[in-house]
Amino acid sequence: xxxxxxxxxxxxxxxxxxxxxxxxxxxxxxxxxxxxxxxxxxxxxxxxxxxxxxxxxxxxxxxxxxxxxxxxxxxxxxxxxxxxxxxxxxxxxxxxxxxxxxxxxxxxxxxxxxxxxxxxxxxxxxx
Length: 127
What we know:
Blueprint: E1 9-16, H1 18-21, H2 29-45, E2 50-52, H3 54-60, E3 71-78, E4 84-88
Parallel strand pairs: 2-4
Antiparallel strand pairs: 1-3, 3-4
Protein backbone atom coordinates (compact mmCIF):
# COMPACT_ATOMS: atom_id res chain seq x y z
CA UNK A 1 0.00 0.00 0.00
CA UNK A 2 1.40 3.40 -0.98
CA UNK A 3 1.87 6.18 1.53
CA UNK A 4 -0.49 9.11 1.34
CA UNK A 5 1.36 12.06 -0.14
CA UNK A 6 0.41 15.36 1.52
CA UNK A 7 -1.40 17.56 -0.95
CA UNK A 8 0.06 21.02 -1.01
CA UNK A 9 -0.70 23.18 -3.99
CA UNK A 10 1.57 26.08 -4.94
CA UNK A 11 0.65 28.58 -7.64
CA UNK A 12 1.68 32.04 -8.81
CA UNK A 13 -1.01 34.59 -9.66
CA UNK A 14 -0.94 38.14 -10.97
CA UNK A 15 -4.03 39.50 -9.24
CA UNK A 16 -5.81 42.46 -10.89
CA UNK A 17 -6.97 44.90 -8.24
CA UNK A 18 -7.91 48.00 -10.24
CA UNK A 19 -11.17 46.55 -11.53
CA UNK A 20 -12.49 46.25 -7.97
CA UNK A 21 -11.09 49.32 -6.21
CA UNK A 22 -12.41 51.66 -8.92
CA UNK A 23 -15.91 50.85 -7.65
CA UNK A 24 -15.42 52.61 -4.31
CA UNK A 25 -14.59 56.10 -3.06
CA UNK A 26 -11.00 57.38 -3.17
CA UNK A 27 -10.46 57.05 0.56
CA UNK A 28 -11.52 53.36 0.59
CA UNK A 29 -9.42 52.10 -2.32
CA UNK A 30 -6.71 50.09 -0.55
CA UNK A 31 -9.13 48.49 1.87
CA UNK A 32 -11.21 47.34 -1.10
CA UNK A 33 -8.05 46.11 -2.86
CA UNK A 34 -7.21 43.85 0.11
CA UNK A 35 -10.79 42.54 0.12
CA UNK A 36 -10.62 41.92 -3.64
CA UNK A 37 -7.31 40.07 -3.21
CA UNK A 38 -8.84 37.79 -0.57
CA UNK A 39 -11.91 37.14 -2.75
CA UNK A 40 -9.76 36.34 -5.80
CA UNK A 41 -7.64 33.86 -3.85
CA UNK A 42 -10.68 32.25 -2.22
CA UNK A 43 -12.28 31.75 -5.63
CA UNK A 44 -9.22 30.39 -7.42
CA UNK A 45 -7.88 28.22 -4.60
CA UNK A 46 -11.37 27.01 -3.59
CA UNK A 47 -10.99 27.80 0.10
CA UNK A 48 -12.42 30.53 2.32
CA UNK A 49 -9.53 30.46 4.80
CA UNK A 50 -7.08 32.93 3.19
CA UNK A 51 -4.11 34.40 5.05
CA UNK A 52 -2.03 37.25 3.63
CA UNK A 53 1.61 37.64 4.64
CA UNK A 54 2.89 40.75 6.35
CA UNK A 55 5.08 41.68 3.35
CA UNK A 56 2.14 41.38 0.96
CA UNK A 57 -0.06 43.55 3.17
CA UNK A 58 2.68 46.18 3.49
CA UNK A 59 3.20 46.16 -0.29
CA UNK A 60 -0.49 46.85 -0.92
CA UNK A 61 -0.61 49.61 1.72
CA UNK A 62 2.80 51.10 0.76
CA UNK A 63 1.37 54.22 -0.93
CA UNK A 64 -1.46 54.77 1.51
CA UNK A 65 -5.20 54.24 1.39
CA UNK A 66 -5.78 56.24 -1.79
CA UNK A 67 -3.17 54.68 -4.12
CA UNK A 68 -3.05 50.88 -4.09
CA UNK A 69 -1.13 48.98 -6.81
CA UNK A 70 -3.11 48.00 -9.91
CA UNK A 71 -1.77 44.42 -9.93
CA UNK A 72 -0.04 42.26 -7.35
CA UNK A 73 2.01 39.17 -8.17
CA UNK A 74 1.64 36.59 -5.41
CA UNK A 75 2.80 33.07 -4.62
CA UNK A 76 -0.03 31.06 -3.10
CA UNK A 77 0.16 27.75 -1.23
CA UNK A 78 -2.71 25.62 0.00
CA UNK A 79 -2.04 22.97 2.62
CA UNK A 80 -3.90 19.77 3.51
CA UNK A 81 -6.28 21.52 5.90
CA UNK A 82 -7.43 23.98 3.24
CA UNK A 83 -5.55 26.99 4.61
CA UNK A 84 -4.37 29.30 1.84
CA UNK A 85 -1.20 31.35 2.49
CA UNK A 86 -0.37 34.20 0.12
CA UNK A 87 3.13 35.71 -0.08
CA UNK A 88 4.55 38.47 -2.23
CA UNK A 89 6.24 36.99 -5.31
CA UNK A 90 10.04 37.13 -5.23
CA UNK A 91 12.54 35.41 -7.48
CA UNK A 92 15.05 33.86 -5.09
CA UNK A 93 16.54 37.21 -4.13
CA UNK A 94 17.13 36.14 -0.57
CA UNK A 95 18.95 32.90 -1.38
CA UNK A 96 21.24 34.49 -3.98
CA UNK A 97 23.07 36.49 -1.34
CA UNK A 98 26.27 34.90 -0.18
CA UNK A 99 26.61 34.75 3.54
CA UNK A 100 30.21 35.26 4.51
CA UNK A 101 30.99 35.06 8.20
CA UNK A 102 32.35 38.33 9.44
CA UNK A 103 35.78 38.28 11.02
CA UNK A 104 35.97 40.76 13.80
CA UNK A 105 39.27 42.54 14.19
CA UNK A 106 40.25 43.74 17.58
CA UNK A 107 40.82 47.44 17.75
CA UNK A 108 44.43 48.38 18.21
CA UNK A 109 45.14 50.45 21.26
CA UNK A 110 47.13 53.49 20.29
CA UNK A 111 49.29 55.13 22.88
CA UNK A 112 49.81 58.72 22.05
CA UNK A 113 52.98 60.40 23.21
CA UNK A 114 51.96 63.19 25.48
CA UNK A 115 53.79 66.44 24.83
CA UNK A 116 56.14 67.36 27.61
CA UNK A 117 55.25 70.37 29.67
CA UNK A 118 57.20 73.37 28.50
CA UNK A 119 58.89 75.40 31.19
CA UNK A 120 57.15 78.66 31.66
CA UNK A 121 59.50 81.59 31.67
CA UNK A 122 58.67 84.00 34.34
CA UNK A 123 58.58 87.55 33.30
CA UNK A 124 59.98 89.77 35.99
CA UNK A 125 58.46 93.09 36.48
CA UNK A 126 61.09 95.73 36.31
CA UNK A 127 59.89 99.18 36.42
